[in-house]
Design brief:
It is a single chain. With 141 residues, the chain is α/β, with parallel strands linked by helices. It has a single domain, classed as Metalloproteases ("zincins"), catalytic domain (Collagenase (Catalytic Domain), 3-Layer(aba) Sandwich), CATH 3.40.390.30. The protein has 5 helices and 4 strands; from the N terminus they run βαβαββααα. A hairpin with a 6-residue loop joins strand 3 and strand 4. It is globular and about 35 Å long.
Length: 141
């Protein structure tokens, strides 16, 4: 299917270079022996993502991303990746990063979750960070 769509909820955020990003995400999936099914990125506010966090995860905390896997075939990834633009903006300087680079890191983080990479333990977080860095290096504008 290979459909990647971008949406906004409670934000007027404008994604730069969406076509380049789509190609990059397809490449990430291909490198992990996966294809893209129906994949939605929803850029939203802290408030919107907090409501989702409370409803679906029973967490009363702000987060930069929530990923909902809706894959129907094991060789494909698909689902909804909600990203708080507010969180990304606030986190970027904490990680000595530009806002766009932090956004791309969060985007690929969600894709890696859909591929099957967890990040609950320290070693898993370290592996996830290495994957994020490797895939960020493939992104060319």
């Amino acid at each position: 299917m290979n459909e990647i769509l971008f949406f906004n909820e409670q934000t007027n955020f404008k994604l730069n270079n969406p076509e380049v990003l789509k190609g990059w995400i397809v490449e990430v999936a291909k490198n992990e022996n996966k294809k893209i099914g129906a994949l939605n990125f929803i850029f939203c506010s802290d408030k919107y993502l907090l409501q989702l966090n409370l409803k679906y995860r029973d967490h009363d905390t702000l987060t930069d991303i929530l990923t909902f896997d809706q894959s129907e075939v094991s060789s494909e990834i698909g689902g909804d990746i909600y990203i708080s633009v507010d969180r990304v903006k606030e986190n970027a300087p904490l990680y000595n990063s530009l806002m766009d680079i932090e956004l791309y890191r969060v985007m690929v983080h969600g894709v890696l979750h859909l591929i099957g990479y967890p990040d609950s333990g320290e070693s898993q977080k370290e592996e996830m960070r290495k994957k994020e860095e490797a895939y960020l290096s493939l992104l060319k504008f």
